[in-house]
Design brief:
Layout (H helix, E strand, L loop, with lengths): L8 E5 L1 H15 L3 E5 L1 H6 L2 H10 L4 E4 L2 H9 L6 E3 L8 H6 L2 E5 L2 H14 L3 E6 L13 H11 L4 E7 L11 H19 L6 E3 L3 H6 L7 E2 L25 E6 L2 E5 L4 E2 L5 E2 L4 E6 L16 E4 L2 E6 L7 E4 L11 E8 L2 E3 L1 H8 L3 H8 L4 E4 L1
Parallel strand pairs: 1-20, 2-3, 2-9, 3-4, 4-5, 5-6, 6-7, 7-8
Antiparallel strand pairs: 1-10, 10-18, 11-14, 12-13, 14-17, 15-16, 15-18, 16-17, 18-19
Helix pairs in contact: 1-3, 10-11
Length: about 375
Amino acid sequence: MAKDILRPSWVEIDLEALTHNIREIRRHLGDKEIVAVVKADAYGHGSLAAARVLLREGASALAIATLEEAKELREAGFRCPILMMGITPGRYAHVLLEYDITPVVTSVENAADYSRAAVEAGEVLPVYLALDSGMGRIGFLPDEAGLAAAKRVAAMDNLRVVGLFSHFASADEADKAYSYRQIETFRNFAAALEAAGIPLLKKMLSNSAAIMELPDAWYDAVRPGIILYGYYPSDEVDASILDLQPVMSVKAEIVQIKTVPAGTAVSYGRRFVTERESLIGTLPLGYADGYPRALSGKARAIVRGQYAPIIGNICMDQCMVDLTDIPGVKAGDTAILMGRDGDKRITPEEIAAKTGTINYEVICGFGLRLRKIYK
């Protein structure tokens, strides 16, 4: 653990694994343009450190979800294109211009606000038209009204339409029928725009799952997200397509060990009671650090190369581990809450399955409060 970290629990980020993953994605894609998704602090991995690696390895642009994320990147010195994937209300148009952020446009009203701000600033703002190809989230509908609205946007002063943007709803499912319908919808809308004299420099549809299994949707640029960080979008994709290495591990020191008699209750609610004399360790990590309380009674750690159960309810800042069957364990030893040691491993998929969520949420949660150590 790094000495400057003031709490003995942390996240380790393996930048060599991140480098391996983007190179593996590049091998699979050939020369297709990569827009690396670093939203949510690079899924909890640290957006600044991740962006440096991803741009060095050939990503041409970065994608984010909030203006604060883009501002942080710009103020750290990043000069590459930055794509804002969510809706930016018109009152923030000046921020888009100040920090050179490329937004997606979702309505005529939205675009009109951008146009007015760009005219006032004497600048031209590049924008992507957002298409709702079947996600039901943001974008113009793929009908005559949606096409007419997109044409109006393309004619607005000081806006430059650079591309068409959309997102898959279920590309990570084994059944790709709906995804193929989305591809067709996207293709038809793009063709209609181009037939109307609106050139689209970049058509962009593919997320991580589509990068893996839907080459028909790669178009001009793709947006890898979770696969950059070493995890597959679901257990329904073909993992043999990409050889990914997990980038994040979660660790904590055992800060206290004590021997307690049988019949001792552990943690809030006294839901766990020892059945034998037990060696109980305390870890300085809890649900405020992204270790889900719903994992109580289901979790395990790796200590000295062996699995040890997390016992009792997980607290906000601490949790307890049963070390009775771990020979030689002592205070100061490291417990791995997510990661691997030899042939023992705990994955975000395991944590997600036990808590009724997805690996995306697990890794994002750990990045909120725990300090990061890069290696």
